[in-house]
Amino acid sequence: MRVTAVAMLISTAASAATVAREDDRERRDAVRRAVEAGDVLPLSQILPRLRGRVAGDVTGIDVERQRGRWRYEFRVIGRDGRVREVYVDARSGEIERIEEK
C-alpha cells in the first residue's frame, strides 16, 4: 500500500513538473516575441534606469502580462536592508510603483 502511494506521489509530482516546465517555456517564448515586437524593453535597457532610481541590489526579476500590459517586477534589497518590490512598465520603462515588504 505504501509503495503504491509513493509511486502515485512521484507520478503526480513528475506530471506537475512537466506542466510547469511547459508553462515556463511558453511564457519565455511569449516574452521573447514581445521583446522582438517592441512591446517589451529588454532588461539591458530597463536595469540601468532602475538602478538610477532605486538604490540597492536586484535579487529577483519577473515579467508578466496583466490586463493586456507587460510589467517587470523587481525585488530589490536596499542598502538599508529593506526589501522593495519595484513594478516597471515593460514597454516604457517607467516605474509604476514601489512597495516595501
TrEMBL record:
Name of this protein: PepSY domain-containing protein
PepSY domain segment(s): 41-99
Keyword hit for Nucleus: no
Record flagged with keyword Amino-acid biosynthesis: no
Entry keywords, A to Z: Signal
InterPro entries: PepSY
Source species taxonomy: Bacteria, Pseudomonadati, Pseudomonadota, Alphaproteobacteria, Hyphomicrobiales
Species assigned in the record: Bradyrhizobium oligotrophicum S58
Source organism, top-level taxon: Bacteria
Signal peptide: 1-16
